[in-house]
Batch of 3 targets.
Target 1
Amino acid sequence: EVFGLRFSPDGKNLATASLDNTVRIWRRDGTPILQLEGHAGGVVNVAFNPDGTLLASASDDNTVKLWKPNGTLIQSFIGHQGWVEDVAFSPDGTFLASVGEDSTLRFWDTDGNVLHTFHQSFPILEVEFSPDGDHLAFAGVGNTLSVWNLELDRLLKDGCDVLSDYLQNDSTIAPADRHLCESVMQSK
């Protein structure tokens, strides 16, 4: 049973995620090319990086695996405590996001290191970056949808805009700290 599929960025091939613990690569016309084996449980979803040189798979064996499209297993990402439901590459391909039934959203570098784990109050089933990389959306059980702004420069400016009066006028702020937002505000 196929649970997920994605086209390669060039549109020539497809990758499928199957409950028989495999990832399969197919030509666009449906001709099988390759079968990737290495998961100990069903594969739920797959994602190509933006240039098509890497493929990630999410599995009910609680792992994400990173592959070369020729079938070489590069890395296993271990950290989820339940099924990994989805995986997505950032638009620049430098990191991945994975989500799962353990109610976590995890950011990984392509070497398999967890960059950060965010805990939610619901199992997360889908994750997607906006094409410009400025937003991340994830959805899960209970009709939940969250969209996070990842545009850090804008978030800093907005935060400093809110804090500027406080920093300048609150008597408990040390004089050296009154200028924390000046460089941020000047680049506004």
Target 2
Amino acid sequence: MPSFTVVRVVAGDDGQSRFEDAAPPLDEVRPGLGVGGVEAAAGVGFRRFAPGFASDFHPTALRELAVVLSGSAEYEVASGERRTLHPGDAIRLEDTHGVGHRSRNRGEGERVMLVVALPG
């Protein structure tokens, strides 16, 4: 069954953040239905980023999986590499130390994200 990609932001031993692409495995439990990637969550919430929002580099306070619900975001890691996310795209932030990442809204509107806090 075809999969999808989740963008990951991780930090190496040197504290430099980088992107990785991960394709969660899905098992076809019946025709047309793939299930997989289930793991524990510490909490679920939403974030609203006002039009024009932009952050400085920072490590994430906790590991989280976030899904863009509306608007678009650009994430940047220590190397200067950037990724743009649109509604339906997911990012897993695991850069809890080091330089971290930064993000900004793309376009003129606000961005809304569903955020799942991950344990550990």
Target 3
Amino acid sequence: MYRCNFIYLSDEAVPFNKVAKIADLIVEKKLNILWTTYSKLDTKFTIDLCEKIIRSGCDVLSFGLESANQRVNDLMDKGVSIATVIENLNVFRKLRFGCGIGAMIGFPGETEQEMHYTADFLSSYINENKGVVGYISIFSLNARSYVYDHPQEFGISSIENADEYFYKENYDYKSMQRVPYERMMEIANKVNMQSMSKVVFRGLKVKGGRKSSR
């Protein structure tokens, strides 16, 4: 009806079994489309399943890695094994499957060394894989989040204007281990600028929009 040939499924993290089911339906109905979405790295991606997803028209998936450090991921309660993440990324590398990987630094209790570890991990993977881009954001404390409601668990001694009942995008807070914001931006920009250069370069080479790898 709408003659749409590219679909972006706007979801924070589609479980991998549902990504596979979407691919099955697209192949079954012989839809000639390109599509992409966000998924999760907590399940093992096999070569066969990834090849099926690629055949369905999805040659790029996006993921929230958050941290490449297992301790920090456990602190966030992500439920993700870094060993599984690495296995999945190796599968993507073999298939030249494109992906966007998001990470976050500055989580309360995270050390500067752990932030560098995540940045180096992401930078290395981006550098080794043409179809991969990544970005790093800085943690912000939002109202009614678990960290906001349980600050002591994360070494937060006080939250500025914590008695305000309305939503604020970012509350400032005090923590003994907090790394200065400017320093975190330096770490994040190492990866963000690397990906930006990659996207611009690809855009100059592939004119007229997104190109399928099929």
